[in-house]
Amino acid sequence: MSRRAAVVCVLGLIVACVAVGAPVAQAPEPTIEDHLRVLAAGAKAPGGAEGRELAVQALAAMGEDVVVRLLGALNNENPQVRSGVAQALGRMRAKDAVDLLIQLLKDVSVDVRAKAAEALGLIREPRAVAALLAMLGSDQEMDRRGAIVGLGRARAQEAVAELITALSDPSWEVRWRAALAVGQIGQKTATGGLQNAIGDEDPVVAACAAWARAKIAGAPTFIPLSRALENQEARVVWASAWALGVIGSREAVQALAKALTEGSDTARQAAKLVLTWMGTPEARAALKKAAALAPAPEESAEPPAAPAPASPAAP
Asked: How far apart are CA 7 and CA 132, in angstroms?
């Protein structure tokens, strides 16, 4: 029996049970192994990028009882598993993972290194700051990006001078992350260093710098980033959505929620993925509200075509 025929058969049995009032057995709760298999599938995971992010969140929600097993998974041969588990441990603020995550900053996979850096930032272990600063000096752009996000999340005051320097990085992807990190750290003496970035030729960098300077002043503005979500250039929309996700505040969620219901197709896709990645109660509420407002799909004899996979810049 083909897979399609098997699915049709199962659905038929469920409909028959409902029709006669028979109980329908509930599917068992996914296990750690189930979620790790989703991570291992990478881009081919059920639900694509959104499915992967949901697997990370599910692992993080399992709590301290699974930390030891997740620490073991950091040695998995599949880099997709290592990066996803690093994310989950970061979300759990797992102090026991710090040493292994610092080791992963030298992993062969650049994505694993970046995710480990971001996780260390969430855990906010002071002894990880030196390793993140060393990573910031890498000639690999993804290393610099990951280190900057980690330092911003860690609120590493000692990193401000290096982050100000990173505002002049050749890569706009590095520059907007540096602007956000400076704002997250909130050192008042950094305001002057943001001035040139506010006039950056790249709209994402300029919008992030404007947010950062206002954040340090105590009144963060989201208007420039919200406008960037309306840009005609897809990479500007995606990067702006990720920037709002990294900020993660209630106002950032509100800007993404508006894009989710009122934005262009690209803005809707970006907002949906970023809100899924965030996974906060406010983000989940925004996704639920948008789903309730969405029009019901038209009936069709043919199954809908799968959407083209998005390629957003990682946060």
From this structure: 48
**pLDDT value of position 292:** 86
Report pTM. Answer: 0.83
Q: What angle do CA 234, 237, 242 make, to 5 degrees?
A: 125
Within the chain, what is the greatest distance between any pair of CA atoms?
A: 72
* CATH number, domain 30-154: 1.25.10.10
* pLDDT per position as a tens digit, 119-136: 999 999 999 999 999 999
Neighbours of 238 (CB within 10 A): 24
Please report where in the chains the tokens 């959407």 appear, as a residue.
307
In the chain the first and final C-alpha atoms are separated, in Å, by 43
Per domain, the residue ranges of the chain are 30-154
d(CA 237, CA 286): 19
Phi, psi of 32, deg, nearest 5: -55, -45
CA atoms of 37 and 172, how far apart (whole Å): 34
In terms of C-beta distances under 8 Å and separation of at least 24 residues, what long-range contacts does 34-40 make, across chains too? Answer: 35/59, 36/73, 36/76, 36/81, 36/84, 36/85, 39/78, 39/80, 39/81, 39/83, 39/84, 39/85, 40/76, 40/78, 40/80, 40/81
Q: Is 311 helix (H, G, I), strand (E, B) or coil?
A: coil
Dist CA 175 CA 192 (whole Å): 16
| CA dist., res. 228 & res. 286, Å (int) | 20
**DSSP-assigned letters across all residues of 36-73:** HHHHHHGGGSTTHHHHHHHHHHHHHHT-GGGHHHHHHH
- Tokens 């900053």 locate to 105
Model confidence over 168-182: pLDDT tens digits?
999 999 999 999 999
What is the CB neighbour count within 10 angstroms for residue 76? 16
Q: Which amino acid is at 276?
A: T
